[in-house]
Amino acid sequence: MIEVQNVSKYFGAEQVLHEISHSFEAGKIHGIVGNNGSGKTVLMKCICGFLRPESGKILIGGKQVGKDFDFPPSLGLIIETPGFLPNLSGFRNLKILASLQRKIRDDEIRAAMSLVGLDPGLKKGVGKYSLGMRQRLGLAQALMEDPQLLILDEPLNGLDKQGAAHIRGVILGLREQGKTVILASHNQVDIDELCDTVCEMDAGVLTQVR
After folding, report:
1. pTM of the complete model
2. CA-closest candidate to residue 18, choices 50, 46, 49, 48
3. How confident is the model at residue 100 (pLDDT cuts 50, 70, 90)?
C-alpha cells in the first residue's frame, strides 16, 4: 500500500502539488493522467524520494519516505528520458547499473532485456538506438532487479504499435506477479487496457476518476 497524505510541494513561490491525499492499493496498476505541467511527474518523484514535499508524508508499506528510508527499497522506475552511456551496449549499461547494488547476475540482465524485446547480445552503442529501443532498455533497467513497486512515467513513449502492444503485455504480467505499478500516460488506450484505477491531475490537484 502506498499512502500519500496531505502532500504539498513548492518550487520557489509556485505550489505544484496541493495537499494531495490518496492511497494506491498493492498488487494493482494505477494510472495517472493529466496535461504537461499538471504535477504527475513531481508526484512520482516524491513517491520515489527524489523530491521532498514541504508538508505531508508518503508511506510505503507503513514506512515513511524520507524518514524510515530515503528511497523505497524495492523500486523500479522510468521517470523522464532514461540516461545511458551512449558508446556502450545496452547490456554493458545495465551491467554497470546492476553493479551498484549487486543483487543480480548477468543472466537476470539478459532475461530482462529479452522480456522487453531487446537482444542482449547486440553490440552497438546505445547512442545508435532508436527512441523505442532506448525506451525498452529503460524498462529493462526498471525490471531487472525484480522490484515490488514500479513507477513508470510514459513507459510506452516512442514505441510503434506492435512494440506498445508487447510492452502492455509485459506490464499486465507484472500485476499477475502481485507487483504494484503506478504509471502516467498520455495514451488513452494504455490507460484503458492496463489500469485498475485512474486518477486525473490538474494544476497539482489529484482526483480519482475510476
Report:
1. 0.91
2. 46
3. confident
